[in-house]
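Below: protein 1.
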Amino acid sequence: IPGLHDAHIHVYELGCLASTVDLSGCSSIQQLKDRLSVWCAAHPGEGYVEGNHWDQDLLGELPTAADLDAVTSTRPVVLNRRCWHVCVANSCAMRLCSIDHSTPDPVGGQIDREENRKPTGVFREVGMELLFPVTRKPQPQATQLKYLERGLT
């Protein structure tokens, strides 16, 4: 289709991104939590929650699993930093992926930890792949079509 090829648009990914919590410009952990809370309330029962574009330089600190758990502890949540090289997951997501204090850091990645080795929820680089059982689940065809439609509009 003329224009789409020239602009190099990833239509499906654009539709997926439109189905996530936009955390751009959040200037505090509380504001991040508020946006996550509003999104969860507007999308009840839709399973995995993804958010994107937070920046700890604007937040003043890294968000943690405890911050996300305060919003929802029953739905898996993974929020990607604006660089896509760091993310934060809640306890539910880590539990579903069998990540705990004994999980080793993967080669090329890192799990941030508290002094007692408990994961803080922050994953870096290849460490983010440990969350693939939650973040890379195949989507039903109806959801895939919804993402394509959103990406085209």
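Below: protein 2.
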Amino acid sequence: FSFGGGWQSTAALVLAAQGVIDFRLFLFANVGDDSENPDTIRYVHEHAMPYAAAHGIELVELWRTTKEGQTETIYRRIMDSEGRRQTIPVYLSNGMPGGRSCTVDFKIAVTGLELQRRGASPKNRATVGMGISLDEIGRMKPSSAKPYEELVYPLIDLRLRRSDCPSIIRSAGLPMPPKSSCDFCPIRKLGEWQDMHENQPERWARACRVEDTLNAENARKGRPPVYLTRVGRPLRDLFKGGSQLALVDEDEGCDNGWCMT
């Protein structure tokens, strides 16, 4: 099972422990302790891993490594390249979304290497559960599976919605996990950015540094700026002086099941 550390994949972990779904291996691709929500990392280590071990389930944490054997994170890739390797989704000056490679490089590829190490191949495909619930059925993309895997959606098969996950998680005596996402992921609502600005200044500063770094590189090349929100203004300027933007209810959710589950 692709474990993201959020509501859906934690509910799936509980269902596996209860024997409702048949998954004994959960793979958590950590995109970086300097990139992922630190509360998610803490939850995985302090709650999800002990719970999995107590129920005979293998929950494995994975990282992306370079050819030199060094751990690579999304944040370090962007900062060490001085913004040349954008990696994350951004909004262009015209409000349109830009390209990205974060999910492929830091989730899909990392998990894929582990699956193949364990014997998955085009002739012996691994069954990979995705934490997409019924209310997010539009994110189902079984055709996006790699040759060594078959993607399945057990929460949808059970007709479970995201709103069903809290009762499942609490039934196991577990606290609710936080929302999983990178600190600088643009796929979040303005209200979430404001909450980060007001209550998690270290995460907010990290997101601002990423946006600043990307735009310093764009300026050097004579390109227009990019943004982490649809507002079309630098992130660090959004809530100056305690000002509050109209909290527009933006669309939310990654377009696949590898993130934010």
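The mean pLDDT is 92.
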